[in-house]
Amino acid sequence: MRRTDETVFHFRDTVRQHFVASLATCETAAKHRAELLANFYDYRKTAIEEGKSEPIREYVLVRRGDTSAVDKLAVLLADQGIEVRRATAPFTVAGRQIDAGSYLVTLVQPAKRLIRTLLDVDVPMPEPFLKEQERRRARRLPNEMYDVTAWSIPLLYNVELISSAEPATVATEPVKAGTAAAGRVEGANADVAWLVPWGTTASGRFLTAALRRGLRVRSTDKPFAQNGRKFPAGTLIVPARQPVSDAAAVVAEIAKVSGAEVIATATGWVEEGVNFGSRYVVSMRAPAIALAWDRPTSAASAGHTRFVLERQFGYPVTVVRSHTLATADLSRFQVLILPDAAEGYTTALGAERRTTPEAMGNRGRHARWLQLGDELDGRSAGRPARRVAGEPRLARGAENRTHLRHPRRHPREPRPRHP
Q1: DSSP single-letter state for residue 133
Q2: CA neighbours closer than 13 Å in the CB half-sphere of residue 346
């Protein structure tokens, strides 16, 4: 790299300087060991006293909605050395009835400052500092804010957080670090099916794992009630008769690993809503997913999307270099994901995209993929990306709000007949 003073800075120089800085840091810490440890001790000790005197004494993570996300966040906090406790009975906070299983995080603890940094929804900044940032912006100077300013992990996880001025009075149990909530199968009699209520990231993980293991899975487009329990639209129905051997063991294994709630049922009778053979209950397919990669895609957008699908949901994607999209054979894919692209995909897809399929010659096989008009421009103008085709949709957003919605029936798939 050529610097402003015309000197050349080599990569080997960065390695050398980083190594020297690391040794200097270790040497300095060793020389001032006692002082450094005392500072850490005082920092955590004074945090306890602050927690006793500040307006917020406790945070409550409400275990509702995407309960698997709530559980994951609670364990994540425990992994950072934060004391988190799980309520074993219902309790009241600020006049609200809170379900058992919700989590309490007291601020009277050594990690109080870290807790505020991670959980506070709004961090007010001093007025003089804000005025200085406005002055710098007016002069087109870089701001002095750090990205931690915008952190609020409950918002990222889509988890409801309640601030309380007084600790709740309820029996609790500690949350241990590294103890992710394991799913289980409720009930032993699955003569008809296993039911997986939709609406959590865990149910999404169950679906992807079940499809990859070769299980037949169906999903209802409408809610129903069975045995006094209401099941939301999207609930997965895993028939007892499966093409795999020992289906019960496979379902139990997937439930445990995914963290999903699975209910065994010995009847197809429902008290209200659609039954299991309704035309509103559709078969799920394991879609083949292609993901545009490399320029012009945003590396962050493509990387985040791939991480969500492959690491959080355990579902594979096939990377397709963007510059090959115009000539690649996409016939084996049901889903094409186009991440953010500041320059759009016009060049990558070729000008022929705006012609008729007949005029595309050997690209006619893309007719059902390369939709005409602006659909392919997706995120290039900051608009939400549209589905180019097929199943499933990827809901972009915060970590646990970004989840795989249940895939729909393929356009060519015949609608199941009502029994």
Answers
A1: H
A2: 10
State pTM to two decimals.
Answer: 0.73
Could you give the angle at which helices 201-212 and 247-258 cross, rounded to 10 degrees?
A: 140
Closest CA to 312 of 368, 394, 192: 394
DSSP per-residue letters across 310-333: IIIS----EEEEGGGTTTS--TT-
Using alpha carbons, list the distances in angstroms from residue 135 to 52, 142, 146.
38, 10, 17
Close Cβ partners of 370 (under 8 Å, ≥ 6 residues apart) = 349, 353, 360, 363, 376
- What does the pLDDT profile of the chain (419 residues) look like in tens digits? 888 888 898 999 999 999 999 999 999 999 999 999 999 999 999 999 999 999 999 999 999 999 999 999 999 999 999 999 999 999 999 889 999 999 999 999 999 999 999 999 887 889 999 999 999 999 999 988 876 656 789 998 999 999 999 999 999 999 999 887 788 899 988 999 999 999 999 999 999 999 999 999 999 999 999 999 999 999 999 999 999 999 999 999 999 999 999 999 999 999 999 999 999 999 999 999 999 999 889 999 999 999 999 999 999 999 999 988 888 888 889 899 999 987 788 777 765 444 444 434 434 445 455 543 334 434 333 333 333 333 333 333 333 333 333 444 343 434 444 43
**β-bridge partners, 273:** 224
Cis peptide before 419 (omega within 30 of 0): no
CA distance 319 to 377: 19
Nearest-Å Rg of the Cα atoms of the chain is 27
Single-letter amino acid code for the residue at 123: V
Which class for 11: exposed (0-12), middle (13-18), buried (19 or more C-beta within 10 A)? exposed
